[in-house]
Write a structure and sequence with these properties.
This protein is α+β, with helices and mostly antiparallel strands. The chain is built from eleven helices and 15 strands. Strands 1, 2, 3, 4, 5, 6, 7, 8 and 9 form a nine-stranded mixed beta sheet that branches. Strands 13-12-11-14-10-15 form a six-stranded mixed beta sheet. Pfam families: ArgJ.
Length: 407
Amino acid sequence: MKQISGGVTAAKGFCAASTAAGIKYKDRKDMALIFSKTPCKAAGTFTTNIVKAAPVKWDQKIVAESACAHAVVVNAGIANACTGQEGMDYCSQTADHAAELLKIPADSVLVASTGVIGMQLPMERIKDGVSAMVPELSDANEAGHQASLAIMTTDTHEKEVAVEIELGGKTVTIGGMCKGSGMIHPNMCTMLSFVTTDAAITKELLQEALSEDVKDTYNMISVDGDTSTNDTCLLLANGEAGNAEISEKNEDYRKFAEALNFVNTTLAKQMAGDGEGATALFEVKVIHAKDKEQAKVLSKSVITSNLTKAAIYGHDANWGRILCAMGYSGAVFDPEKVDLYFSSKNGEIKIIENGVALDYSEEEATKILSAEAVTATADIKMGDASATAWGCDLTYDYVKINADYRS
């Protein structure tokens, strides 16, 4: 596997475009379009929030029932959530308009929205945006890059990645982009993610690969404990790499799943590290657990602890907050056997051994915790399983951003 430059246009046959439609933002692009002339197999995972935005319901139906997918239309600024039948009609109108211009079936057009809940989409602007993007579709990396910029809301930077693998002598590419900064919590975590590949693979295995992978990637990040109404991860495969179709769980499937995991892990970590107001990516590893589920529960509990997140912001090695968060997680372990380490590019330090603080240097710990990416590793000495979760620190700016988000 080799990481390459690019994002959603890295794979053969995929184009992208973006435009400033003026949906909410007045000084930047706010719509993106992804397109493949070759029909795609489509897989998707979506929010577990009972309150689901209209685009989520639309895409769930397309992924489950449509013969293929060709395009994704994305807007930022308005979420089209809690908008009733009118919101669903707007999904249909968007798909119909894109289908007419692209000369594809309307049920092969997926839609996604992110932004303020409860507002109706300005459909003339949406349609004008689609009309502006179709002639600008390009397979250049820059087109994908501009699309990744256009889907941001409170994100401070774009998020994209691409990799190449070899399957049966053919070069297969997987690329993706995502947005996510706030209202992020496991289940499946708040975000929009779009992954494209030129691999030939059955729809069933494409869906299985994605569904399994989100458990260890997007479902292992949290910024603020809020699960969104709009969570959507779409994976499109157009088969243009020319590899023998993956139709069983063989070595090619394993390689594909490994590359997909790298793409999704990279995007997930980028979102966690760009949490609203964040100054640091906070990674929590639980090792030597009795099983994976125990390790997941413990690591998630730590990254969602506001007290721990605040300590990370203050570069304070307040290990008691971590042990406390593990203790109320619901997972059973022996706190008197836990070893805890902090590490970053600035070094590593062991803080506690068998549940008791060591005589460590607070100055050295603060130095380690002052990096832009910090890891806490908890060794619970119960088995061979492990899990990693990602979050961020909790800062004053998080409150400022969310206090006036609608204005």
